[in-house]
Give the backbone structure.
Amino acid sequence: MIRWVSAFLDRPARKLDLAVEFWTVATGSPARPRPEPGFVGLHSETGDDYLELQGVLDGPGGVHLDFAVDDVAEFADRAAAGGATVVTDHGSWRILASPAGLPFCVAPWRGELRRGGPHRGPGGTLSRPHQVCLDIGPGRFDAEVAFWSGLTGWRLDTSGLPVFSRLQPEPPVPIRILMQRLGEDRDASAHLDVSSSDIPAVRAWHESLGATFIGEWAHWITMRDPAGGVYCLTRGNPETD
């Protein structure tokens, strides 16, 4: 059973400090360096922690999901039966990859129970990182939706835009999964989505913190944090998203 989900923001190790500085302010969550080098947790002051930053040595980084479960071996075996690959077995926790090659981790549940509320920024704007979006080419999209739906057991919502499928967990799990069908086949990737009560105002605030604007669509805009990581500001209600 999935008890909790955390989002790991993977950023180049040489730029990890830039990422930590930006996201601590953008989320109102003080940084807590972990005992392991290159890992920094963001402490939620209104709930249990669910955001982490990790410095990676190769590539530009991205985002990956971390599932906290009752039985790591059972969950990993189910994932493998559904088409996942075990990348590294660390004993008490494991790194796997989905059929499309997206990495994710499985670890023991540590008693997290409280989903924190949104952060109030300048001018009273509310925002909260609320989902990880998996960007998948059309050739692998249906299989990837089936994999994540079967593994999580969460409610599958396809009622929005036709290129999106959303997996909605039961409370108090703080992170949901959005799957986006890309227009062309390429390597699958993932990014963080931040629910925002006022996208233009949150965008201006994030730009003042060092983020840069990439593009705008009807319901979201795409940004790049100071460490080069792509994320989106989505229109919604951060109190409930």
In short: The chain is about 20% helix and 40% strand. The longest strand covers residues 2-12. The chain has a mean pLDDT of 96.
